[in-house]
Design brief:
This is Superfamily I DNA RNA helicase. InterPro entries: DExx_box_DNA_helicase_dom_sf, DNA_helicase_UvrD/REP, HelD_bacillota, P-loop_NTPase, UvrD-like_ATP-bd, UvrD-like_helicase_C. Keywords: ATP-binding, Helicase, Hydrolase, Nucleotide-binding. Residues 209-601 form the UvrD-like helicase ATP-binding domain. This protein has five domains: 1-95; 97-202, no CATH class; 288-341 and 462-594, no CATH class; 351-456, no CATH class; 624-763, 3-Layer(aba) Sandwich (Rossmann fold), CATH 3.40.50. It is an alpha/beta fold. The chain starts with a helix and ends with a strand. Strand 1 (100-105) and strand 2 form a beta hairpin. Strands 1, 2, 3, 4, 5, 6 and 7 form a seven-stranded mixed β-sheet that branches. Strands 22-23-21-24-25-20-26 form a seven-stranded parallel β-sheet. The longest helix is centred in the N-terminal third of the chain and has 46 residues, at 3-48. The chain has 26 helices and 26 strands. Bound molecules: adenosine-5'-triphosphate. Residues 191, 194-195, 206, 209-211, 214, 230, 232-238, 562, 598-599, 705, 707, 735 line the site of adenosine-5'-triphosphate.
C-alpha cells in the first residue's frame, strides 16, 4: 500500500478526530448545564413550590406545582443522561474512530459513496455521518461480502450495492498503525493478527473482524429459534455477545438489557465474557447458569452439583430413566398429568393451627373440586384460596372465645398492650368491648401464619404430588419405548423418594418438578423476557428446553452448541435437534452451521478433530503454530515433573496456561503436589468460583467455553480416558488451547489418541 494513501487516510482521520473533540466539548457543556440546572431546581424546589392546603383547589394546585418541578427535573436528567452517553461514545471514538472504510455505488449512474465504520455513530450535522455504527444497516456490507455486488437489509427491504473498496484500519491513539485493502484473494489480515494475540482472562469484542456467517447470526431478527451448531472455537459465544449488542441497538427504546437473558455453562464463563458488552458501550444482559436458575427456586432442596453429576456412574437402567425424564415425551406426559389434576387427584395437606388440624384436607379438596368444571388450575387455586380465607375470617369470632385467647390477654404486659392498641382510639363503652377488641387483635395476629400459608398455597404438597405423578407415569407413557420395565421404574421412584426425604434431588428431576409446580399453581412464565440465549445447548435435555420455552413465553430463542462437545448428555445430544424441531414453527426456525474454528492454530485444530470419530465438520483456520505434544511419564512423580517443566516453558514465553484434569480429585492431588514444589497455581473447584489470573488447574467439566494460550492435559492416560464415549470430553478439553497443547500421560497414554495421524503431534 503506497505511503501516500496512508498519509491521506491519516489526514482524514485527523479531521474526524478534530470534529469529535468539538463535539466532546459541546457534550461536556450540556452535561455541566444539566447538572447546574438540576442543582438549581432542587435548591429552588421549596421556594417555587406553592403550598396551599386549605381547599381542594389549593391541594390540586400544590400537586400540579410538584408535578411541574418533577417534570423539569426529569427533563434535565434526561438531557444529562443523553449527553453523558454521547460523551462516552465520543471518548471511545477519539482513540479508535473507525476500523473500516467502504466505497460503493448504489447503481451504475449513482454517485460513488464512501463510509467509515466504527464502534458508534458520529455525525457533525444531523444528516452527515462521519462514522457509522457497526450495527447500522449499511455497515452489514462490510461483513457480508467481498468486492462487487453485495446486498443488505434496510428497513425498506433489501438493497444491493456495488462495493469497490473495502479497507481495514488498525488505529491506536488517533494514529493509523496499519491499513489493508481486502479482496477475495487476500487472507483477512486483521483477523489473522487478532487471532495471533495472546489470550486474556477476559474475552474481547470481535466487531472489527466479524465473519460473514457470524454476521448472519448477529443480525437475525426473524427467527423464533435460531440454532447454531458450531465447532469448538468457531465463535459461537463471540457471535451471540455481538448479537446482544446488535439487538439492543436495533430495538433501542423498546428493548433493554434486562429483557435479554443468557444461560451460560458456569460462573467462570460469566466472568470471562463480562467485558464484551461494556466494551461495546452496552449493559450486560442477565446471566445465569441453568443450575442457578433452577436451584434458586428450590431453596430447601439440595440440587446435585455439576461435579456430582459428572462423577455419577450410572447403570444402563439409570441412563434410560434419565433419557426418559429428559425427553419431550415426558414433558407432554407431565402436561397431561397436570391437566388431569383439574378433575381429580390433587394432593392436599391439612392446614394446622397450634398443632391441631384447623381446616382438614378433605374440606380443602371439597372446595377445590367444588368449582365449575371449566375452572382451570390457576383459577381453581385462586378461588380455593379465597374460600379458605373466608373460612379463616369466619373462625375469628369463635376463636376469640377460646381459653388461650383469654390467657394471652391476661398475660400481656404494657408494651405488648400498646402494640395491640396501635393508633386506634382507646375509648371503649365497656370492659367487655375492650376485651373483644383485644381478643380480635390477638386472634388476627395468631392467624397470620395461616393466612400466609393459604396465600402461598402451602395446603398443596408438591413433593407428594411429584411422587404421585412418577407412580402414575406408566399409565401415561409406554415404558417399553424407552426399554424400561415397570419394576425398574418403580425402583427409580423409590430412589427419588429416598433422596427427597433427605432433601436431595438429581438435576434430571428438578425441571419436571418445577414444571409440575408451575402447572399446579398456574404460573404463566416471565412475559417480559424477549430474548433468551442458551450456550452449550448440547448439555441440556429436551425437557429443559421445553420448560424454558414455557417459562419465557414471549421470548425468541438463540441456542448454540457443539454436538461434538456433549460431555454430559453424550449420545443423547443427537436426538436433541430432532426434538427441538417439533417445538418451534419450522418457518420461524433457522439453523446455522459454523465449521471454521478460529480459536486454535491449524496444528491444534487438526489434532483435536482427529480425537473424534464421527464428529461434526471442523475446518482449521490457516494460522501456523507448533505441533501438540504427547508425553508418557513413567509414574505420577515423573508426570508431575513433566507438568512443571511445561508450565515453566509456557511462563517463560508468556503463554497463560490451564492444566485440565479429568475430575476434581485428580486436580486436587496435582495442585497439592505443585504447591509443595513451589509452583504457583490456582485450583478451580466449583462452578461458582471466579476466574483467577496466572496458571490455573481446572477439572474438565468446568473448562467449558473457556480458552487459554496453552493447555496441559493432565493424566491423558489410558486409566482416565479409555471409553469410546469419552472422546467428546477429551476433544472439549484439548480444544481449549489457542496456541499450544501438551498432553501428559502416566504409564500408558489414552487409546483415544491412537487414531490421530502420527505426523500431527510430537511424542516426547
Ligand atoms: N470473527 C472473529 N474475529 C476475531 N476473533 C474471533 C472471531 N470469531 C471467533 N473469534 C475468536 O475465537 C475464539 C473462540 O470463539 P468462541 O469462544 O466464541 O467460540 P465457541 O464457538 O463459543 O467455542 P466453544 O464451543 O469451543 O466454547 C475467541 O477467542 C474469539 O474471540
Amino acid at each position: 500500500m503506497p505511503d501516500s494513501i496512508k498519509a491521506q487516510e491519516q489526514k482524514h482521520l485527523d479531521a474526524v478526530i478534530a470534529k469529535i473533540k468539538v463535539a466532546e466539548t459541546a457534550a461536556k457543556k450540556r452535561i455541566d448545564s444539566a447538572e447546574g440546572d438540576e442543582a438549581g431546581i432542587r435548591k429552588n424546589f421549596v421556594n417555587d413550590l406553592r403550598i396551599k392546603t386549605d381547599s381542594y383547589e389549593g391541594l390540586l394546585e400544590t400537586a400540579l406545582s410538584v408535578r411541574q418541578q418533577q417534570q423539569l427535573l426529569a427533563e434535565r436528567q434526561n438531557s444529562w443522561q443523553h449527553a453523558t452517553t454521547e460523551l462516552s461514545t465520543l471518548k471511545r471514538l477519539e482513540d479508535k474512530s473507525y476500523f473500516a472504510r467502504i466505497d460503493f455505488q448504489e447503481g451504475p449512474t449513482a454517485k460513488p459513496e464512501t463510509i467509515y465504520i466504527g464502534l458508534g455513530s458520529f455525525s457533525d450535522t444531523p444528516d452527515h455521518f462521519l462514522v457509522y455504527d457497526w450495527r447500522a444497516p449499511i455497515s452489514s456490507i462490510y461483513y457480508d461480502g467481498e468486492l462487487g455486488n453485495v446486498s443488505y437489509q434496510t428497513p425498506d427491504g433489501e438493497q444491493t450495492v456495488d462495493v469497490q473498496l473495502k479497507r481495514q484500519f488498525q488505529i491506536e491513539d488517533g494514529t493509523i498503525v496499519t491499513l489493508y485493502d481486502t479482496d477475495q484473494t487476500v487472507t483477512d489480515q486483521m483477523l489473522l493478527s487478532a487471532l495471533s494475540e495472546h489470550s486474556d482472562t477476559k474475552m474481547k469484542s470481535i466487531v472489527t473482524t466479524i465473519q460473514k456467517e457470524q454476521n448472519r447470526i448477529i443480525r437475525d431478527t426473524h427467527s423464533d429459534l435460531l440454532f447454531v451448531q458450531g465447532a469448538a472455537g468457531s465463535g459461537k459465544t463471540a457471535a451471540i455477545l455481538q448479537r446482544v449488542a446488535y439487538l439492543l441497538y436495533r430495538y433501542r427504546g423498546h428493548l433493554n438489557a434486562g429483557q435479554v437473558m443468557l444461560f451460560s455453562p458456569n460462573q467462570l464463563f460469566n466472568d470471562y465474557i463480562d467485558q464484551v458488552l461494556p466494551e461495546l458501550g452496552e449493559h450486560n444482559m442477565v446471566q445465569m447458569t441453568y443450575y442457578q436458575y433452577a436451584g434458586r427456586r428450590l431453596p430447601k432442596i439440595e440440587v446435585e452439583t455439576l461435579a456430582q453429576r459428572f462423577g455419577e456412574v450410572n447403570t444402563p437402567i439409570q441412563n434410560r430413566i434419565s433419557r426418559l425424564k429428559g425427553s419431550l415425551t415426558f414433558f407432554d406426559a407431565v402436561t397431561n398429568y397436570a391437566d388431569h389434576l383439574e378433575g381429580r387427584d390433587m394432593v392436599f395437606r391439612n392446614i394446622k393451627f397450634k398443632d391441631k388440624v384447623f381446616i382438614d384436607k378433605e374440606k380443602i379438596e371439597e372446595i377445590y373440586y367444588g368449582f365449575n368444571r371449566n375452572y382451570h388450575l390457576a383459577n381453581r387455586l385462586q378461588a380455593t384460596k379465597e374460600a379458605l380465607i373466608r373460612i379463616l375470617n369466619r373462625r375469628i369470632s369463635s376463636e376469640m372465645r377460646t381459653k388461650w385467647v383469654e390467657e394471652t390477654i391476661e398475660d400481656l404486659d404494657r408494651e405488648q398492650l400498646n402494640a395491640l392498641y396501635g393508633d386506634d382510639p382507646r375509648e371503649f363503652e365497656s370492659a367487655d368491648k375492650e376485651f373483644q377488641f383485644l381478643a380480635r387483635k390477638v386472634v388476627m395476629k395468631a392467624f397470620d401464619p395461616i393466612r400466609k400459608a393459604i396465600v402461598r398455597a402451602r395446603f398443596l404438597s408438591i413433593n407428594t404430588q411429584y411422587v404421585h405423578m412418577l407412580r402414575d407415569m406408566p399409565n401415561r407413557i409406554d415404558l417399553n419405548d424407552f426399554h424400561i420395565t415397570t419394576a425398574d421404574w418403580q425402583a427409580s421412584v423409590d430412589e427419588t423418594i429416598e433422596k427427597l426425604k433427605e432433601r436431595h434431588m438429581q438435576l434430571v428431576d428438578t425441571t419436571p418438578y418445577l414444571y409440575l409446580y408451575d402447572k399446579m399453581t398456574g404460573k404463566e412464565g416471565e412475559r417480559n423476557m424477549r430474548y433468551v440465549f442458551l450456550d452449550e445447548i448440547q448439555d441440556y435435555n429436551a425437557f429443559q428446553l421445553a420448560f424454558l420455552k414455557f417459562s419465557f413465553p414471549r421470548a425468541r430463542f438463540t441456542m448454540l452448541g457443539d454436538l461434538n462437545q456433549a460431555i454430559f448428555t453424550k449420545e443423547n445430544s443427537r436426538t436433541l435437534l430432532q426434538e427441538l424441531s417439533t417445538m418451534f414453527d419450522p418457518d420461524k426456525t433457522k439453523v446455522v452451521q459454523l465449521t471454521q474454528s478460529y480459536r486454535s492454530t491449524q496444528q491444534v485444530t487438526d489434532f483435536t478433530k482427529h480425537i473424534l470419530k464421527n464428529g461434526e465438520a471442523v475446518t482449521a483456520f490457516d494460522r501456523e503454530g507448533e505441533l501438540p505434544t504427547v508425553t508418557v511419564a513413567s509414574d505420577e512423580a515423573d508426570g508431575i515433573a513433566k507438568v512443571i517443566a511445561q508450565v515453566q516453558r509456557n511462563n517463560a514465553e508468556d503463554e497463560t496456561t490451564a492444566i485440565i484434569g479429568k475430575d476434581l480429585e485428580d486436580c486436587r492431588r496435582l495442585t497439592e503436589e505443585l504447591k509443595a514444589q513451589d509452583v504457583a497455581v490456582t485450583l478451580i473447584q466449583s462452578e461458582n468460583q471466579r476466574l483467577a489470573p496466572g496458571v490455573i488447574v481446572v477439572p474438565s467439566f468446568l473448562a467449558k467455553g473457556l480458552e487459554f494460550d496453552a493447555v496441559i492435559v493432565w493424566q491423558a492416560s489410558a486409566s482416565r480416558y479409555a471409553a469410546e464415549d469419552e472422546r467428546q470430553l477429551l476433544y472439549t478439553i484439548c480444544s481449549r488451547a489457542m496456541h499450544r497443547l501438551s498432553l501428559i500421560a502416566v504409564a500408558e497414554r489414552s487409546p483415544l489418541v491412537a487414531g490421530i495421524p502420527e505426523d500431527e503431534y510430537e511424542t516426547i
